[in-house]
Amino acid sequence: MHADVFDYSPIIEREPVQWPGDAKVAVYIGLNIEHFHVDRPSTSLVEATAGLVPDALNYGWRDYGARVGIWRVIEILDRYGVRASALINSEVCEQYPQIVAAGRDRDWAWLAHGRTNSSIHANLGPEEERAELLEISETIHKATGQQPRGWMGPALTETFQTPALLEELGYGYTLDWTNDDQPYRLKHADVLSIPYSVELNDLGIFSLKGQTGREFEQMVIDHLNQLMTDVPTGRVMGLALHPFIIGQPARAKYLDRALHYITSQTGVWLTTSDQIESHFRETAAT
């Protein structure tokens, strides 16, 4: 079975993408704000206890993000004037209203990230999925005052009908397909794929690959520098962050250093995923 969601498009054959101010790279911060259930397994640090109820070890590790880590990350983002693209589980709106209020105060862009990261968005029939997406969207809209334009499923999960349902509900883009450095149009819905990275992602870098804060900082620098040299067409760098990972005391300073580097470079458009979608639609060839 081939991927009928998008066409093959080698980047060397496309019309150039132009960013505002002749920037070479559009950079956004994808800040994952998630709610986990204490009686369900999810992202785990120690698999040996992942099936226990309660799994105090792994649940507590994840819960650190909402209690402590997010506030450390917000302080760093504020230092550099960065607006987050907040990938928010709809359950966050009820469980952590202080986080939503902090994001509203900072005019974050709000993207729907499913209901909870304790459940993936898969194996849903069309009507069931439509109802699920509608409830998620309405919950986020009510809490944030913003109708989400972007979608990323928990663990980047979709069904084959998700793009068409997203279009029906007023969404403009998804982050689930991580196969490009530029936005592109999906085949069967007026929905864009905006680049999101599983390589430049703190969860994978620290927890799956076991790399250090210094290595994370260098990866961010190397990633940006390579995209800056990939001329003449503009690229996108999405820096994916999880407060329970990068918000840990021993790691936060490396996010600070990485943002210092990013914000000191000419040729960078520091923006949100919403603004990337809007600009691409306004300027890109059909």
From TrEMBL:
Residues 56-271 form the NodB homology domain. InterPro entries: Glyco_hydro/deAcase_b/a-brl (IPR011330), NODB_dom (IPR002509). It comes from the Bacteria. SUPFAM superfamilies: Glycoside hydrolase/deacetylase (SSF88713). Coiled coil: none annotated. GO terms for molecular function: hydrolase activity, acting on carbon-nitrogen (but not peptide) bonds. Pfam families: Polysacc_deac_1. This is Peptidoglycan/xylan/chitin deacetylase (PgdA/CDA1 family). The lineage of its organism: Bacteria, Bacillati, Actinomycetota, Actinomycetes, Propionibacteriales.
